[in-house]
Design a protein that fits this description.
The chain is of the alpha/beta class. It contains 21 helices and 19 strands. It has 4 domains: 30 residues, no CATH class; 81 residues, no CATH class; 231 residues, P-loop containing nucleotide triphosphate hydrolases (Rossmann fold, 3-Layer(aba) Sandwich), CATH 3.40.50; 200 residues, Nucleotidyltransferase, domain 5. Helix 4 packs across helix 6 and helix 15 packs parallel to helix 17.
Length: 626
């Protein structure tokens, strides 16, 4: 049986012995003194110096690593406080005439940039060589610091490109429409005009506090964003697919232009960054594709949507619904080679809250070389050139009047031209005439045109409706009275003279539509004639009036209240046989109007407008002569 050791004889176990063993005093006395003492340490100052050196080396290595990975240092707020502008002292033993000549030759461009000449430096060297060399050392130090600052600034610029964004003219107009509180904004143009770049920068501005980093001005997408000072903004970007459109073009553009230290991303199941979150403003936007089911586009509330290339109509409606609560904006940047519904429902029927930048040609991107454009153009058909080179609509290939511009268009000579103007009241001294495109099964088309003192023609009113022959005449009389027009003549389609031939054969005598309308209009002092069917002549005349005689001043304009007229004029085109299609009802009216000889004539004294009589006629019931 083991007995416990006596505590009086127990000592502390030295390092190296197994745990649980004890040492009697007799054995402890045998251990040498050196084994019980701690090892002697080196000089403390040397140790601290070594640690500082290692820390400095690690710091420098970290800077080099960060620079090699493209991570910039924080942008300095005050460059005057930057280090590195200390003089480099050259030893006096090295200050010789030969050395000074070499230094002057090396630094000559820098010296001249600082307003010094070689002669001045050499003259100063003859007086005080040490001070001269000190000046050169300072100049070299300044130049070295300048190069360092340039490199640092370049590195910052590469990772914060949105702050250095310089939009082209068409991109400026696109952005200004957003600032003008438009709720549907389109950028329609050729390939390579910077549509995706505009998308990246506008999305970044919305998400970084609703301020454009490139000009520090507000860029607010919705009423909600305005009330919340740009915080918590929700957006979407739409594109064709994940593989090519999103991962191949859109996402790289976003990462190229957005400041890398402002956002975080999330990946989806295909490995694409589908969500961009901005912690500072608590804003985010997500990327969706047209390949996804329409239901996945439903059920959200946001401030803005940016469609990169034209969306299908069902996707447009689904995303547009999500903007209602916050009164957000829907943006589109596209080359018009698909989705013709956009042309019919948005472009040709514009709302006052719609802003359209259209017909942007490929050479609007000044960074492209003419040779590169020429090579690309050679590979296209004539129809494809309309959309991909000229920035027009592929659906409008073969237009009758190609020089009709619904939106302001900058021509090759620098002139800006537009044929659609805001509606205004026609002065009572301007003569007004009408043209009727008469139909048996379709709505009747009636177009009214006025002429001013300068010989300019204004399409000022339209009627596009189904009505009886008597009602057709009453509509014309009512518009004349209501607007106080100087209207005394008009024409109708020759078809109206033969529309009762079938009835005559069966029931005997019957008045045709022409006679009924003519007799009804005569009661109000309006004469009715038969319109021309010489298409070739009036097509050329309308084209001439759209072009203008001297400079960018057309002689034919259409008021924006005539929406059906604008739509039909924009879409009227030739068929496969080279003849104008039969759907140009209002274009035919405008064309026939050019053959009537309408021009401005001063109102003679005996026929001057009697406003008292005019008011009496306006107040009189329909069909009662006053």
């Amino acid at each position: 049986m083991k007995t416990k050791p006596d505590p009086a004889t127990q000592v502390k176990r030295p390092r190296g012995r197994p745990k649980g063993t004890t040492i009697p005093k007799t054995e402890a006395e045998l251990i040498t003194r050196t084994q019980q003492k701690k090892p002697r340490t080196k000089n403390k100052r040397a140790e601290k110096a070594k640690k500082r050196k290692k820390a400095a080396e690690a710091f420098v290595k970290g800077l080099q690593t960060r620079a090699s990975r493209g991570r910039p240092r924080k942008r300095p707020q005050d460059r005057s406080k930057l280090p590195g502008l200390t003089n480099i002292i050259t030893p006096a033993s090295e200050i010789t005439p030969e050395a000074i000549s070499v230094r002057i030759a090396t630094l000559k461009p820098i010296i001249e940039a600082y307003g010094m000449s070689q002669e001045e430096i050499e003259a100063k060297f003859a007086i005080d060589p040490v001070q001269t060399m000190s000046i050169l050392d300072t100049v070299e130090a300044i130049e070295r610091e300048s190069v360092r600052l340039l490199m640092e600034n370049k590195q910052y610029e590469d990772t914060h490109r949105i702050e250095y964004f310089q939009p082209f003219e068409h991109q400026k107009r696109f952005i200004e429409y957003v600032r003008g509180d438009k709720k549907t904004v389109l950028l329609v143009g050729a390939n390579q005009i910077g549509k995706s770049v505009a998308c990246a920068n506008v999305a970044g501005a919305f998400s970084m506090g609703c301020k454009a980093p490139w000009d520090k001005a507000d860029l607010v997408p919705s009423d909600y964003a305005r009330m919340n000072n740009g915080q918590g903004i929700q957006g979407r970007i739409l594109c064709n697919d994940w593989e090519k459109a999103a991962m191949g073009t859109l996402i790289p553009k976003l990462k190229e232009w957005l400041s890398e230290d402002t956002y975080e991303t999330k990946k989806n199941n295909v490995g694409a960054d589908y969500e961009f979150y901005f912690p500072k403003t608590k804003s985010k936007f997500t990327i969706l594709t047209y390949k996804e089911d329409t239901k996945s586009h439903e059920g959200w509330t946001g401030d803005w949507v940016f469609a990169d290339e034209p969306p299908p109509r069902d996707k447009y409606i689904a995303n547009r619904r999500g903007l209602i609560a916050r009164n957000g904006v829907f943006l589109m940047a596209m080359t018009a080679i698909s989705e013709p519904w956009i042309l019919d429902e948005i472009v040709l029927e514009p709302d006052k809250t719609t802003g359209i930048v259209a017909d942007v040609p490929i050479d609007a991107n000044t960074s492209l070389t003419p040779e590169a454009i020429r090579i690309f153009e050679q590979s296209l058909t004539e129809d494809e050139k309309v959309a991909r080179i000229k920035g027009g609509w592929l659906q409008l290939t073969g237009r009758v009047w190609k020089n009709f511009y619904q939106q302001p268009r900058t021509l090759e000579n620098g002139w800006v031209m537009c044929h659609v103007v805001s509606a205004f009241d026609i002065p009572p001294t301007w003569p007004v005439e009408f043209q009727i495109d008469f139909h048996l099964t379709e709505p009747h088309a009636i177009s009214f045109t006025a002429c001013d003192e300068l010989g300019r023609y204004w399409v000022c009113e339209e009627v596009w409706q189904n009505c009886s022959t008597e009602e057709l005449a009453d509509v014309i009389i009512r518009l004349k009275r209501r607007n106080g027009w100087r209207l005394s003549y008009g024409e109708i389609d020759p078809l109206s003279k033969g529309d009762t031939a079938y009835i005559k054969n069966r029931f005997g005598k019957a008045e045709d539509s022409f006679t009924i309308i003519k007799n009804r209009l005569r009661e109000d002092g309006i004469r009715l004639g038969v319109g021309s069917k010489d298409e070739k002549s009036y097509i050329k005349e309308v084209e001439r009036r759209f072009k203008g005689v001297n400079g960018p001043n057309p002689t034919l304009y259409i008021m924006d209240s005539c929406k059906e007229t604008i739509k039909q004029v924009s879409r009227w085109s030739y068929d496969d046989n080279g003849k104008p299609k039969a759907d140009g009802h209002f274009p035919e009216c405008i064309g026939r109007q050019t053959q009537t000889g309408l021009r401005y004539r001063p109102v003679a004294e005996e026929t001057a407008v009697d406003y008292a009589a005019l008011k009496a006629r306006l107040d009189a019931p329909m069909g009662v002569s006053v």
